[in-house]
Write a structure and sequence with these properties.
Blueprint lengths: L4 E3 L4 E6 L3 H10 L4 H9 L7 H14 L3 E4 L3 H8 L4 E6 L1 H11 L4 E5 L4 H6 L4 E5 L9 E6 L4 E4 L6 E4 L4 E6 L2 H5 L6 H5 L4 E4 L8 H15 L7 E5 L6 H11 L5 E5 H8 L8 H11 L7 E5 L3 E7 L5 H17 L5 H8 L5 H12 L7 E7 L13 H14 L2
Parallel strand pairs: 1-5, 1-11, 2-7, 3-10, 5-6, 11-12, 12-13, 13-14
Antiparallel strand pairs: 2-4, 7-10, 8-9, 14-15, 15-16
Helix pairs in contact: 2-3, 3-4, 5-16, 9-10, 11-12, 12-15, 13-14, 13-16
């Protein structure tokens, strides 16, 4: 059976490590990591071939407070690093995490998967149906690292070393995943789209071969022809393992999606500059500038302070934006296990005061083009001792789709 909400294109098995600064400090000593190396990694990302390379990358992200997704050239680097920590097995991928959030509210979906194993069969709830392109079982885990604000790790340099402190909570993803790198499409995808009302496209960021990418995009464009008139296509961006691949995807999907979603990091990466996320005029200019790089008439950006959309009839997504920030806040507060009761409890919480000011100012700004609109909703004011930062963007997408599905 397939459902009107089809989410793809790939899912993952995730190894979520339990944050332990003492383990990181021990590894930094054993590998003789210096603060200069960490600083250099922030400016120019090096390849990840060994456990040491991965450690330096984690420390660099920690010091900036930024999140990100990186390709590890060997699975051994991922597995060796994870072996030092307590680990929880979960499911990931934008479509899968979005579907899991929706399932918590009783909203079914069909997932397009590129790999399958007993972890996936065990952890997918009954609300989620799936189709899969894999011909046999396999598992290539993604390493998920989440750190809280204020997390501290001391590295060498003598005289007591240098302390790296996280200014914000965030999450990191490291992977070497051949099925998602190939991203083969199921022969059943076209049939699944025949009766779809919404199709979420994501996952191309893992691909690294241009010829394979072009072939997959050809297949996807053909499958999109099976969608009914009026079906909504939502393209959710992500950190590309090979940045040059992003432009190839966007050039092929241009005009085929109605909404192009991204987070604050992806927005700033496109622009090549930092953006003051609480300055409404600066954000409005950023969203106007990024329009040259997107695939859809409506651009949707989600951040820790607000979610916003710009484009023709953008205001019709106001409730969807609110559903997204509510779903993401519920996960941030409580982790896995979203329920209608937990979702409703989040809705009753206070909003972020500066987010409220931003949303009002942003929505009042005139659009850059005739016939377009700007809309923003504030995120919630959350003070959580041990927040869940993994999968917040994916969960936001689930909240958007759930709100659209409920009208």
């Amino acid at each position: 059976m397939t459902h009107p909400l089809v989410l793809g294109l790939g899912g993952t098995v995730d190894y979520e490590i339990v944050w332990d600064a003492a383990v990181l400090e021990r590894l930094a000593r054993e590998h003789a990591v210096t603060s200069a190396e960490v600083a250099a990694e922030r400016d120019a990302r090096g390849p990840i071939r060994t456990e040491r390379d991965l450690l330096v990358s984690v420390l660099a992200f920690l010091g900036s407070g930024a999140g990100g997704e990186r390709f590890a050239e060997t699975s051994a680097a991922v597995l060796d690093f994870a072996a030092h920590f307590e680990t929880v097995v979960t499911l990931g991928g934008t479509g899968v995490r979005a579907g899991l959030a929706m399932a918590g509210l009783g909203i079914p979906s069909t997932q397009h998967l590129v790999s399958i194993d007993d972890n996936v069969r065990r952890l997918l709830p009954p609300e989620i149906d799936w189709i899969c392109s894999a011909e046999h079982d396999s598992v290539d885990p993604h390493l998920i690292v989440q750190f809280p604000a204020g997390a501290r790790v001391r590295v060498g340099d003598g005289d007591g070393g240098v302390e790296i402190v996280a200014p914000h909570p965030n999450r990191l993803i490291y992977s070497n995943d051949p099925p998602n790198r190939d991203l083969r499409l199921s022969r059943d995808l076209g049939d699944a789209l025949r009766h779809a009302s919404l199709f979420l496209v994501s996952g191309f960021n893992s691909m690294q071969d241009e010829v394979e990418l072009d072939a997959r995009l050809d297949e996807l464009v053909g499958a999109l022809d099976r969608l009914p008139a009026g079906a909504l296509v939502l393209y959710e961006d992500a950190g590309f393992h090979v940045p040059a691949m992003s432009s190839r995807v966007r050039s092929r999907l241009a005009g085929l999606a109605a909404v192009h979603g991204m987070n604050e990091d992806e927005l700033q990466d496109y622009l090549g500059r930092a953006v003051d996320l609480l300055d409404a005029a600066e954000v409005a200019q950023a969203l106007d500038d990024v329009r040259a790089a997107v695939v859809a008439p409506v651009v949707l950006v989600h951040t820790k302070y607000w979610a916003a959309a710009v484009g023709p009839e953008a205001s019709r997504f106001a409730d969807a934006l609110d559903g997204g920030v509510t779903m993401a806040a519920t996960r941030f507060r409580l982790g896995d296990g979203i329920t209608p009761e937990r979702y409703a409890a989040t809705q009753r919480l206070a909003r972020h005061a500066r987010g409220v000011d931003f949303a009002q100012a942003f929505s009042a700004l005139p659009p850059a083009r005739p016939g377009e609109e700007r809309v923003a909703v504030p995120a919630f004011h959350l003070e959580v001792e041990n927040p869940t930062t993994i999968g917040l963007g994916d969960t936001f997408v689930g909240g958007v789709i759930a709100a659209l599905a409920r009208g």
